[in-house]
Amino acid sequence: MPSSPEVIAAKVDALKVALVQQGRRVEAMAELSFSACFARDTVKAQQAIAADTEIDRVDVEIEKSAVDLLTLACTDGAMMSPQQVRSVLTIVKINNELERIADVATVIAEQVKHLQPAENFPQTFRVLANSAIGILRDSVSSLDAADPKLAKKALMSQTTVNQFKQALIRDLHQQLQSGKLTNLPLASALHDVASSAVTMTDHCTNICEQVLYVATGTIMRHMEGRWEEVNV
């Protein structure tokens, strides 16, 4: 007997729930990584790194469930609607982006061992980190609520993180030249964390693009420094 449309719909919904839970899990890990940086707390850093194991496990589980669902639909008579197929394919794409964000959070946590000296962080560093976390949080929330407005807001905010990174690098250079910052490993670690924050928000924009596509049928393209909508 082919699976009923109700059964297929329930399986797709369950997959969405699992994806949102994974998003919150990744969000918590990223927050812990940045918190470890601010506190220069190696214990927190190790907790963040350890959290990646569960995220990797769920990543594989979600992808396997998606493949099983598509296979089931085909063998049972293709009971999935085109919208449901798009939803499942989008879930697979977003799941991959979340796993990559967790990898970036691991890189950030691994820098904490270089942040032990008691020199003050540039204020720009905290602003950059908080902005990256905010974009990640909005991206996951837009996914949870299927909210295209929030997805677009997160998408448009990504540019500011690049600007904060450039401001941080200028600040680091000025502190090094003036002698206010004398620890080169610390400066290098802050640079790497800033670059990782930008990479994290790049993955967030990919999530937001998928949310917008599923919710509105709009494809976002980044062209000549700005975002443009293409209706399909």
Write a structural description.
- The protein has 232 residues and is mainly alpha-helical.
- It has a single domain, classed as Methane Monooxygenase Hydroxylase, Chain G, domain 1.
- Helix content is 80%, strand content 5%.
- The protein is built from six helices and two strands.
- The protein has a two-stranded antiparallel sheet with strand order 1-2.
- β1 and β2 form a beta hairpin.
- α5 packs antiparallel against α6.
- The two termini are 35 Å apart.
- The relative contact order is 0.13.
- The model has no long low-confidence stretch (mean pLDDT 87).
Write a compact overview of the structure shown.
The protein is mostly helical and 232 residues long. Helix content is 80%, strand content 5%. It has a single domain (5-231), classed as Phosphate transport system protein phou homolog 2, domain 2 (Methane Monooxygenase Hydroxylase, Chain G, domain 1, Up-down Bundle), CATH 1.20.58.
